[in-house]
Amino acid sequence: MKNRSTLSADAGVNTRLAHVGHDPFSYHGFVNPPVVHASTVLFPDCRTMETRAQKYTYGTRGTPTTDALCEALDELEGSAGTIVVPSGLAAISVPFLAFLSAGDHALIVDSVYAPCRLFCNTMLRRLGVEIEYYDPEIGAGIETLMRPNTRLVHTEAPGSNTMEMQDIRAISEAAHRHGCVVTMDNTWATPLYFRPLDFGADISIHATTKYPSGHSDIIMGSVSANAKYWPQLHDAAITMGICGSPDDSYQILRGLRTMGVRLEHHQKSALEIARWLESRDDVARVLHPALPSFPGHEIWKRDFKGASGVFSFVLKVDDAGRFSKKAHALLDTLSLFGLGYSWGGYESLAVPVNLSDRTIRKAPLDGPVIRLQIGLEDVADLKKDLEAGFAAAAAV
Is 58 helix (H, G, I), strand (E, B) or coil? Predict the structure, then answer.
């Protein structure tokens, strides 16, 4: 490839994914970047060592392999800089620690990823940060929650498990009027279907464990920042010694190459199954932003370029005392859908959703919530598997 910059600006999504993050001719023409393992990096002389006047100085500060992934993510995100970290939760906690201090107030969306809530309620509160949860659909109304010490607003769209949409631009504009940094967990959409920095967010967070990996065998996270907040984020990552490994970075780069075609398949199959579930009498509601019936559909349609393979549905159960029994009967019958956490891999998954930690958006009253990750299997086979589950639930 002779002109990568022109290609990145003009080419389609899948073409860009095939080429971002590495110049083969920078390393003897090999298509994939080398895996460079490093702790110690040697300096040619004392002056170079004292002034750090060379690109690589120590393994925690990056290698050509981790840099290749960060460069690829910067091109996809439109960001000034990216760090890679050992997990999706680390991708949330590092920027929180970078931008929050004792006495600060942080606004966290109530539909947040549950481990993020645990981190806020334990670690951040112990460090003296005031935590307040807000309704995901608050939009510009978040300005009413601002205090003189509010420093950070965390967003996630769609929300974990219940899929609430957020007006990221309206929230960002309100937050910026009060000098707040806006972070967004964008794992569900990936930068292919939504770019947070284009809508006013300052920090884009991903569990690259999910769709960038695509094979359920890597744990990793990424944090991408705009020019204003990149230096502070980078300094925090260096100070904390948090870094992703070269081996995992190499695997994520491999996953990126096929992420576009995989996401198209995930999206198509998930929507077909979501519409099918919506037509069933034993389903109370389907929680999928791309469905016109979903309350946040108009925001999704306005701001997002697509949908991934994760959504939830509410199983219709008349007796609240039987919520768990019905859900367990359905889930325990499934054979193609695995019972397992995470998502974004090639296989379909299903989990019962626990919403007991919510403070504002409580669990629905019309039935238990079940979250599905629609993988790359044939839809007809997945429907048969779910049919068996519904039959088992009806028999309880």
Answer: strand
Residue with tokens 């309704």: 135
- Residue ranges of the alpha helices (H) in 279-322? 297-303
| Residue 382 pLDDT > 50 | yes
Nearest to 150 by CA among 179, 123, 125: 179
The pair of three-digit structure tokens given for residue 348, joined into one six-digit string: 């379909």
- SS3 breakdown of the chain: % helix, strand, coil, rounded to 5? 45, 15, 40
CB atoms within 10 A of CB 97: 19
pLDDT attached to residue 158 = 98
Q: 231 and 249 in contact (C-beta within 8 Å)? A: no
Residue 147 and residue 105 in contact, taking contact as beta carbons nearer than 8 Å = yes
Whether residue 210 is predicted with pLDDT greater than 60 in this model: the reply is yes
What pLDDT is recorded for position 113? 96
CA 93 to chain centre: 13
Distance from C-alpha of 290 to C-alpha of 111, rounded to nearest angstrom:
18
Task: Return the structure tokens found at 128.
Answer: 């003296």
- Give 56-87 pLDDT, tens digit per residue: 999 999 999 999 999 999 999 999 999 999 99
Instruction: Extract the tokens encoding 340.
Output: 């397992």
Token pair for 254 = 């491999």
Ranked by mean pLDDT, the top range of 2-11, 317-326, 373-382 is: 373-382
pLDDT score of 7 more than 50: yes
**Cis-peptide into 24, omega within 30 deg:** no
Q: In angstroms, what is the C-alpha Rg of the chain?
A: 22
- Cα distances from 257 to residues 21, 265, 270, 308, 348, in angstroms, run 10, 15, 21, 17, 21
